[in-house]
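Q: What residues go here?
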């Protein structure tokens, strides 16, 4: 007879097939002439970010920072690119950690379902947001990520307990919390750090957070990513780089490296992430000012362009 964990793996496999079929179908139908084959830079970003993600650093903040530093992906499609590209590495992590770490199945499935629902609702909103709103959202998200990383550096996170299950009110709080974290992932706020802190505050063994974190991402990311794929709100080349470069990195980190002194890496992440957050917020502020100036003129950008064209086409008149 199949166990609950086995059925969970079957469901995860089904989600993976759904995601791959959705993505491959969209790629075949795409009309864009932009190249799709990932560059060595795309593959390198995927490898490095997912390697450290498997060891607990997280991948969303670091990937966003690298994209901004190299001006590699447009701001408005970064959230979609993160979710679409990191989905397959997250699924690989989930298969590994759900298999090797024990946690109560009711707790695990309840929190995963809450995160999936949150992501599904959140992705529909983010996919329709204008560029400057996404810049503000990602800037705030990166500052939150930097704060969580600092908490890890200074050992300020809750120590956690020894429990492997949540019941009653604590389970309800965990479900609500993971629903919120799932919805925020659509904006580019990684789930790992906040989920680890929440799990610890609720009294669970922090080790139990790993299958919950990675299982949540593995189930919610195909769901949310499908909406970004359908709306074409992501960079295909960069996303393929994250996926193809990320899966080998997950296997390397999980089975060969297993642990690493990440103290100085975390400090580097904090510095880079804060810098990137400030760049994003400054860009959003500048675009907001431009929009206000354009609005005060009483003409839309398209109308102003048409007016300039009409003036240029008029014959010069002598006084």
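A:
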């Amino acid at each position: 007879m199949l166990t609950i964990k086995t059925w969970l793996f079957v469901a995860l496999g089904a989600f993976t097939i759904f995601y791959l079929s959705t993505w491959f179908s969209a790629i075949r139908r795409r009309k864009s002439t932009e190249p799709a084959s990932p560059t060595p830079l795309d593959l390198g970003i995927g490898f490095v970010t997912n390697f450290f993600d498997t060891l607990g650093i997280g991948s969303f903040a670091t990937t966003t920072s690298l994209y901004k530093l190299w001006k590699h992906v447009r701001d408005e499609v970064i959230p979609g690119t993160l979710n679409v590209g990191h989905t397959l590495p997250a699924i690989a992590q989930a298969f590994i950690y759900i298999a090797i770490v024990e946690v109560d199945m009711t707790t695990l499935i309840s929190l995963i379902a809450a995160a999936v629902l949150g992501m599904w609702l959140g992705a529909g909103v983010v996919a329709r947001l204008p560029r400057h709103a996404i810049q503000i959202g990602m800037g705030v998200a990166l500052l939150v990520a930097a704060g969580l990383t600092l908490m890890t550096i200074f050992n300020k996170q809750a120590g956690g307990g020894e429990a492997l299950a949540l019941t009653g009110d604590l389970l309800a709080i965990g479900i609500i919390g993971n629903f919120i974290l799932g919805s925020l992932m659509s904006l580019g706020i990684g789930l790992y750090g906040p989920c680890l802190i929440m799990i610890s505050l609720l009294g669970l063994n922090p080790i139990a957070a790993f299958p919950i974190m990675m299982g949540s991402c593995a189930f919610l990311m195909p769901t949310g990513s499908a909406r970004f794929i359908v709306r074409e709100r992501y960079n295909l080349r960069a996303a393929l780089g994250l996926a193809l470069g990320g899966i080998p990195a997950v296997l390397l980190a999980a089975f060969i490296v297993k642990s690493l002194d990440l103290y100085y890496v975390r400090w580097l992440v904090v510095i880079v992430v804060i810098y990137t957050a400030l760049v994003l917020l400054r860009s959003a502020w500048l675009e907001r000012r431009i929009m206000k100036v354009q609005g005060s003129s009483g003409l839309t950008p398209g109308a102003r362009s048409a007016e300039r064209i009409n003036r240029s086409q008029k014959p010069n008149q002598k006084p």
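A: Context that may help when evaluating the design: Residues 72 and 102 are 40 Å apart (CA to CA). Residues 4-27+37-304 form one domain.
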